[in-house]
Design brief:
The complex is a heterodimer of chains A (about 200) and B (about 325).
Chain A (H helix, E strand, L loop, with lengths): L10 H8 L7 H19 L1 H17 L12 H12 L3 H26 L6 H14 L2 H11 L5 H8 L3 H19 L1 H9 L11
Chain B lengths: L2 H6 L10 H26 L6 H8 L3 H12 L5 H19 L10 E14 L2 E14 L5 E7 L12 E7 L22 H10 L8 H13 L6 H12 L5 E7 L5 E9 L5 E7 L6 E7 L12 E12 L4
Antiparallel strand pairs in B: 1-2, 1-9, 2-3, 3-4, 5-6, 6-7, 7-8, 8-9
Helix pairs in contact in B: 2-4, 2-5, 3-4, 5-8, 6-8, 7-8
The chains are: A mainly alpha (about 200), B alpha+beta (about 325).
C-alpha cells in the first residue's frame, strides 16, 4: 500500500489538532510508521516489528494529550514509545540479538580491526563485539540503538527517554567504552601510549 | 571513525513494512480513533454525523480521506472487518492508478482461470482441475474464443474433455448470455453508487441478500476482464457488504499470494466464499471457498474450491 499525504502541518500541530479531530492522527501514522518499523525490525525482526509499529501508534493516540506541543518532530516521542513497548519482547530480542549482533559485528569488525591495528582476527573480534553488545544494560542498549538505528541525535534521544541530554551522553560513552574494550582498542591505545604496542595482550 | 559512527552506519534503510502490515496497523489505529469518537459521542450526546463535514475539511490527503470513510461509515466494525474495508478501499485507490493491460488492434486480452472445483455425486465430492482461457478481442465486433479443459469431466458442447468455442460478445453457451454478463459502462464509478446498483438488482437469489450481493460482485470481478475504474468501484462496493473480512497471504491455485476478502454465510453453516486480490493492482487473482462445517466429505474449515486467475495480452487465440 502506498499512502500519500498532502497535509503539510508539522507533527505538533497535527497532534494538537487531533484533540478536536481525532481522525487527523492517522496522518502521523502515514508519516512515521515506516521509521518505527525499521527501528523495531532491526532490533526484533520483521514479525514482531509489525506489532510494535501498530501498538506504538495506538499508545501514542491514547497519550496524545500528554505530548509537548512545543516539540515539532514527533519521531523521538514515537520511538520512545516503541522502545518501551519493545521491552516486553526482551526474550525475543535476546534471541534475535544473537544472530543480529553477529551480523552487525561482522560489518563493524573490519573498521575496528583497522582501529586495532589489525592485531586481532575478525572472527574473534566479532565474537567479542557480539558479546559486548548483548551485555550492555537495557538502558544503555536502548540509548545506543536509538542513536544508531533510530537515527536520533542526543537531544532527541533525551526527549525519547525522558532524561537530560547529559545522561544520554554518559550512557553513550559507557556503551562506547564497552565496545572499545571488547575490541581491545582501549588497551591498545593505552599501551601504544606507553610504547608497548607490540606486546599488548589480547584478551579473549 | 569511532564505534558509534560505525554502529550508525549499520542502520538498515531498506527494511519496509509489508503493505498488509501497514494497512492492518492503520486499520487498528482507525478502529481506536472510531472507538474514541463513539465513546465521546455517547458521553456528550453528540451526533456522529458531525464527522462528515469536519472530515471533508480534514481530508486534504488520501490518508485522511480514507480515515473519514472508515470512521463515518464503519464505527462498529471489528478490527478485522475494518482491515478488510481499509484493504479494499486502498486496493480500489491503487486500482485507479494501475495501468490496465490493453490489447492492440489485432490482439486479445486473455483471462486464464485455473480452477479446482469439486465434482459431486451421491457418494460425495472430489476435486477436479479445469482450465478456462477466455480470449476477448480488442475489436468488440470480433469473435471471442473460449478454450476449456474440463479435466475429468466431459465438455457440455461436444462431450470431449477439451473444447474450443467461438462467439461474438462471449456468448459461448447461450445466445442470450455473454460470458461477461454485464455492460461495464453500466457500473457506477463511485463505490457507494456501485453498491447501491448491485443491491438494487437483488431479486431474491442466494440464502441472503448480502451473500447474493457478494456473489454478483465477485462474479463480475472474477472474469479478470473488468477495466480499472469499474474494478475500483466494485472493490469499494465489496467493502460495504456487512461481515466482509480479510485474510493475509492466501495463495491461489498457482501459488501466487494475495489478500483473501470474504464472508461467512451463517445460513450455509458458516461456509466462506472469498476472492483473492493483489492489493497493489486490485486485480482478482483467484477465488476460494472454505467449508464452515462437515459437509459432503469436507471437514470444518477445509478448502472446497480454489482457483487462480491471470490476465495477459496475447497475439493469437486458438
Amino acid at each position: 500500500m502506498e499512502s500519500s499525504n498532502t497535509d503539510v502541518s508539522p507533527d505538533n500541530e497535527v497532534i494538537e489538532r487531533s484533540a478536536r479531530e481525532p481522525a487527523v492522527f492517522a496522518t502521523l501514522y502515514d508519516r512515521h510508521a515506516t521509521t518505527v518499523f525499521r527501528y523495531a525490525a532491526q532490533r526484533l525482526g520483521d514479525d514482531a516489528a509489525d506489532d510494535v509499529m501498530s501498538e506504538t501508534f495506538l499508545v501514542a493516540f491514547e497519550r496524545r494529550a500528554a505530548y509537548d506541543v512545543a516539540v515539532v518532530d514527533a519521531r523521538p516521542w514515537l520511538l520512545g514509545i516503541a522502545t518501551r513497548l519493545m521491552r516486553k519482547h526482551a526474550r525475543l530480542e535476546a534471541t534475535a540479538w544473537k544472530g543480529m549482533s553477529a551480523d552487525l559485528a561482522a560489518q563493524v569488525a573490519p573498521d575496528l580491526i583497522d582501529l586495532a591495528g589489525a592485531r586481532i582476527d575478525a572472527q574473534r573480534l566479532t565474537r567479542r563485539l557480539a558479546k559486548a553488545l548483548r551485555r550492555l544494560s537495557e538502558i544503555d542498549r536502548d540509548t545506543l540503538l536509538l542513536y544508531a538505528w533510530g537515527d536520533l541525535d542526543y537531544a532527541s534521544i533525551a526527549a525519547a527517554m525522558q532524561v537530560p541530554v547529559g545522561t544520554v551522553r554518559s550512557r553513550l560513552n559507557r556503551a562506547r567504552r564497552q565496545l572499545r574494550r571488547a575490541a581491545g582498542i582501549e588497551t591498545l591505545e593505552q599501551e601504544t601510549d606507553h610504547g608497548r604496542a607490540d606486546t599488548a595482550p589480547q584478551h579473549a | 571513525m569511532d564505534e558509534l559512527t560505525l554502529l550508525r552506519n549499520t542502520r538498515d534503510e531498506s527494511r519496509e513494512p509489508s503493505p498488509q502490515a501497514l494497512t492492518a496497523g492503520r486499520a487498528a489505529l482507525l478502529g481506536r480513533i472510531a472507538d474514541d469518537d463513539a465513546t465521546d459521542a455517547t458521553a456528550h450526546h453528540r451526533k456522529k454525523r458531525r464527522w462528515i463535514p469536519r472530515l471533508t475539511w480534514a481530508a486534504a490527503g488520501v490518508a485522511a480521506a480514507m480515515a473519514g470513510v472508515l470512521v463515518a461509515g464503519n464505527v462498529i466494525l471489528s478490527a478485522q472487518s475494518a482491515y478488510a474495508s481499509d484493504m479494499l478501499r486502498t486496493a480500489a485507490t491503487q486500482t485507479i492508478h494501475y495501468a490496465d493491460l490493453v490489447a492492440g488492434s489485432d490482439q486479445y486480452l486473455r483471462s486464464r482461470t485455473h480452477a479446482r472445483w469439486g465434482v459431486c455425486d451421491d457418494t460425495g465430492c472430489e476435486p477436479n482441475d479445469q482450465i478456462l482461457d477466455v480470449y476477448m478481442p480488442a475489436d468488440p465486433e470480433a469473435e471471442w474464443v473460449l478454450y476449456r479443459d474440463w479435466g475429468k469431466m466431459p465438455g457440455v458442447l461436444t462431450g470431449e474433455s477439451i473444447e474450443t468455442t467461438r462467439a461474438v460478445d462471449g456468448r459461448f453457451y447461450d445466445p442470450e448470455f455473454s460470458w461477461v454478463n454485464v455492460d461495464y459502462a453500466d457500473i457506477p464509478l463511485d463505490g457507494a453508487a456501485a453498491y447501491e446498483w448491485i443491491d438494487a438488482q437483488y431479486a431474491g437469489g442466494s440464502v441472503s441478500r448480502d451473500e447474493d450481493n457478494f456473489v454478483r460482485i465477485t462474479d463480475i470481478l472474477r472474469s479478470g476482464l473488468v477495466p480499472a475504474p469499474q474494478r475500483a468501484a466494485l472493490l469499494d462496493a465489496l467493502s460495504r457488504i456487512p461481515g466482509v473480512t480479510a485474510t493475509d497471504n492466501v495463495a491461489n491455485l498457482d501459488g501466487v499470494t494475495g489478500v483473501a476478502i470474504g464472508r461467512n454465510e451463517i445460513l450455509r453453516a458458516g461456509e466462506r466464499q472469498e476472492v483473492i486480490i493483489d492489493p497493489d493492482t486490485g486485480l482478482i487473482i483467484g477465488q476460494r471457498t472454505m467449508s464452515g462445517a462437515t459437509f459432503f466429505g469436507w471437514g470444518p474449515n477445509q478448502e472446497m474450491s480454489l482457483t487462480a486467475i491471470e490476465t495477459t495480452v496475447v497475439d493469437n487465440a486458438p
